[in-house]
């Protein structure tokens, strides 16, 4: 159960609770057997494929020799969010995808599951504080503000707190964790497990979470909001971990009205809203060809929607979703319809959705006269997220690029304002949790130098 200082406990009855785990935790015997398969390669390709550079063969060897705590230390030394990353990283295209076993057409080492075993076993017994007790620093009197409580900010907050800096996190939502708690597919990580990790991080030092507070531009702080100017004057440094904005809309006829959801918004409700019901939904259309599209399609299929179609306007070779995720979703009944465009959402007299009108597509565009009516009661739009970075401009000197991403120095993650750093999706345009953790690490390294000097 997550501690109440991190967030109000989410109510029971949420749909995500009905979904089982795709990669359940190893027990000791399973972990040691798998660890013993590792060849402890020199110049190991798995390390090079990890965005945070975890020394994978070393932690696996420690598991094999019974030093599970040591394994957790090796992991967390490079990635403070090593527990959630173990569960959510697309290892198939990162570390495990680079494992030498692939070249021999043999099963690669299950690096993610071993990493989960090491971190979960260790941290469930005393958390991070027990692991780092001897190295936590006394208070420096310096204060750092985090904007957003997603993985980028949580990782940065933990690293700063260990060095004795006070951290205050401002989060506009009611719960912490960003997409790690409210976006990740439940078969990988459920909200309460994401909160568990946040609690471990918070235990490392003086970290305060202020939820329901949005950081805004302008001159006046009103209830529920705080200005960028106040943060710059009250804190020694600021970290922007803004993530991305709301789901984009398609602009199809009939799109406005009940039954049409943004995919990220619907996933958030599956994970957090006990009032959400899919009763009466037997057919659903998911529009998009990326990882968010396959995630929501897969979740709907696992929640009992009989026919879920992912509709993509280009060819199957151009799908941007990971092949392993599509294969796994299809195993649970997701149908992928490529070279199709949704041209209209058809509703009955009461406004309820009855069908989606799909046209064949050429070069991503609908071909006139090829429409067919496909029954559906729910449509999820997974065609991208807008940028939420406008607030960044309220911090004098911070710049955005042409795609609305916060501009930083690649090595230090410092922005054009010497007191402001940034990392995660708002900088990289939307990658993975492990990238947010790595960018936070780079930012904190530079921030520590600046705070010391
Ligand atoms: C549906 C979905 C599934 C995903 N699945 C995976 C996966 O399986 N594995 C993986 O590694 N990655 C996955 N990702 C990507 C991953 O979740 C992100 O890369 C990661 O969460 C980025 O972290 P962040 O801290 O940059 O942003 P976020 O997680 O988006 O957090 C940003 C936080 O900032 C808050 N915020 C924004 N503006 C303000 C403001 N002005 N004031 C106060 N608070 C503010 C937001 O409310 C939010 O809580 C997925 C993403 C999506 C959308
Ligand atoms: S590449 Fe595979 S076998 Fe080699 S060290 Fe990494 S996990 Fe072990």
C-alpha end-to-end distance: 41 Å
* DSSP strand content: 15-25%
CATH superfamily of the largest domain: FAD/NAD(P)-binding domain
Major sheet attributes:
5 strands, parallel
What general form does the structure show? globular
What is the percent of helical residues? 25-40%
Instruction: Look at the structure and give the CATH class of the largest domain.
Output: Alpha Beta
Q: What integer is the average pLDDT?
A: 96
Biggest sheet strand order reads 3-2-1-6-18
Total strands: the figure is 18
CATH topology of the largest domain: FAD/NAD(P)-binding domain
* CATH-scheme architecture of the largest domain: 3-Layer(bba) Sandwich
Radius of gyration: 23 Å
Supply the number of structural domains: 3
Helices, by number, come to 17
Low-confidence stretches: 1-5
What does this entry look like structurally?
The structure is a single chain. It is globular, with a radius of gyration of 23 Å. It is an alpha/beta fold and 453 residues long. Strand 12 (340-347) and strand 13 (353-362) form a beta hairpin. The protein contains 17 helices and 18 strands. The chain has 3 domains: 21-125, Alpha-helical ferredoxin (Fumarate Reductase Iron-sulfur Protein, Chain B, domain 2, Orthogonal Bundle); 137-243 and 388-452, FAD/NAD(P)-binding domain (3-Layer(bba) Sandwich), CATH 3.50.50; 247-385, FAD/NAD(P)-binding domain (3-Layer(bba) Sandwich), CATH 3.50.50.60. Bound molecules: flavin-adenine dinucleotide and iron/sulfur cluster. Iron/sulfur cluster binds next to helix 2 and helix 3.
